Write a sequence for this structure.
C-alpha cells in the first residue's frame, strides 16, 4: 500500500518533534498506545494560562508512517487554538487531510486520543475540571 | 458435555461420544476439545490427567487399529486422531487453552484495545523505544538500561501469569454465567497485555542480536 504524498511529507519532515518539560504546570502530556501495532505516541501541549491558547505542541511517535504523520499533523492543528477548540478536533479531519486508507484510520484515532489525553493532563494540572476530556 | 446423537452403525440413541456404548463402533468425533477429552470446561487443568488421556486415546484412536474396519470408521479414526493432536497441543498450554475458551465463548482475541495497556506500561514502552532508537544510532550506553527493562518486562510476564492462574480458578468456581463472563473479560484483557509485553521482549532481543550479528 502506498502512502499518500501528505503522509510522506509529514513522515519525511515531521513537524514539532521533541518534548516539552513534563513538570511545567502549563504543559499537558498525553501518552497513548495501540497494542495491536505496538505504536506509542507522546503528544505535549504548552498552554498560555492567561489566554488558554496552545502556544506550542510537540510529539514523539514510535510507529508506522501514518501514525507519525497523524501526530505530526495533530501538533500543527493544535498550535494557536484554545484548549476548548482543540477538544473539538476529530480524527476524521486527520483522515481527510492525510487521505488515510481505512486500515490506517486507527492511527488518526490514536492521534485524537493523544490530543484528548494531553488536554486532560493539562486540565488536571491546572486544577480545571477535566469534564468531557477523558483519557482514552 | 451433552453430545447426544444416534449411532451411525446400530442406530441406538444416546450412543455416547467417541465409541457407541452399545455396539462399540467409533463415532464421528466432536470438534470441541473439552468434549473430546471428556473434560469439564475448566481453565485450570490437571496436566497429568490430560497427558494420561492423550496417551490412552492416542492408542484407542490410532488409524492402524482401523485398517480392517469399515471406511466410515477409518475416516473417523483419522479425523479423531487429528482433533486429538490439536486438542492436546491447545489444552496443555494454559495460554492457548484460555484463548481457546475465550474464542469458543465468542470473544475476539485479535482485536486489542488501548485500555488493555495501563499508563505505567506505556511509559515503559516509550522509554524502551527511546533506548532502542539510541542503540540504533550506535549509543551502547543504553545497553544496561535495555537489559534492565528486559528483566522488568519478564517480571511483568510472570506476574501476569500468576494473575491468570488466579482468574482461571475463579472462572472455574464462579456460580453464574454472568460472573464467568466478567472473569473471561478480565482474562482477555490480561492475555492481550501479556502478548503485548511478549512482543516488546522479542523486539529487544531482536535488536540486541542483530547488533551482535
Amino acid at each position: 500500500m502506498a502512502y499518500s504524498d501528505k503522509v510522506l511529507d509529514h513522515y519525511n519532515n515531521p513537524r514539532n518533534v521533541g518534548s516539552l518539560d513534563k513538570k511545567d504546570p502549563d504543559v499537558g502530556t498525553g501518552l497513548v498506545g495501540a497494542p495491536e501495532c505496538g505504536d506509542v505516541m507522546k503528544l505535549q501541549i504548552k498552554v498560555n494560562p492567561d489566554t488558554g491558547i496552545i502556544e506550542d505542541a510537540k510529539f514523539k511517535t514510535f510507529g508506522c508512517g501514518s501514525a507519525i504523520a497523524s501526530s505530526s499533523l495533530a501538533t500543527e492543528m493544535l498550535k494557536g487554538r484554545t484548549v476548548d477548540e482543540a477538544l473539538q478536533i476529530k480524527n476524521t479531519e486527520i483522515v481527510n487531510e492525510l487521505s488515510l486508507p481505512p486500515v490506517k484510520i486507527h492511527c488518526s484515532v490514536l492521534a485524537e486520543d493523544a490530543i484528548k489525553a494531553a488536554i486532560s493532563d493539562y486540565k488536571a494540572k491546572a486544577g480545571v475540571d477535566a469534564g468531557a476530556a477523558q483519557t482514552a | 458435555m451433552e453430545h447426544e446423537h444416534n449411532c451411525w452403525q446400530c442406530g441406538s440413541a444416546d450412543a455416547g461420544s467417541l465409541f457407541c456404548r452399545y455396539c462399540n463402533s467409533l463415532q464421528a468425533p466432536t470438534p470441541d476439545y473439552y468434549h473430546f477429552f471428556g473434560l469439564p470446561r475448566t481453565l485450570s487443568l490437571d496436566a497429568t490427567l490430560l497427558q494420561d488421556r492423550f496417551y490412552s486415546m492416542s492408542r484407542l484412536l490410532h488409524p492402524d487399529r482401523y485398517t480392517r474396519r469399515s471406511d466410515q470408521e477409518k475416516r473417523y479414526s483419522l479425523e479423531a486422531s487429528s482433533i486429538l493432536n490439536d486438542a492436546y497441543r491447545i489444552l496443555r498450554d494454559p495460554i492457548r487453552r484460555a484463548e481457546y475458551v475465550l474464542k469458543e465463548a465468542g470473544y475476539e482475541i485479535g482485536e486489542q484495545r488501548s485500555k488493555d495497556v495501563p499508563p505505567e506500561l506505556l511509559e515503559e514502552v516509550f522509554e524502551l523505544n527511546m533506548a532502542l532508537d539510541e542503540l540504533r544510532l550506535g549509543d551502547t550506553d543504553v545497553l544496561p538500561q535495555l537489559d534492565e527493562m528486559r528483566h522488568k518486562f519478564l517480571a511483568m510476564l510472570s506476574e501476569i501469569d500468576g494473575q491468570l492462574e488466579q482468574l482461571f480458578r475463579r472462572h472455574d468456581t464462579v456460580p453464574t454465567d454472568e460472573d464467568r463472563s466478567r472473569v473471561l473479560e478480565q482474562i482477555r484483557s490480561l492475555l492481550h497485555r501479556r502478548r503485548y509485553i511478549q512482543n516488546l521482549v522479542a523486539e529487544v532481543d531482536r535488536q540486541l542480536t542483530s547488533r551482535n550479528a
Summary: The longest helix of chain B spans residues 177-212. Residues 114-212 of chain B form one domain. The interface with chain A takes residues 110-117, 119, 122-123, 125-126, 129-130, 133, 192-193, 195-196, 199-200, 203 of chain B (CB under 8 Å).
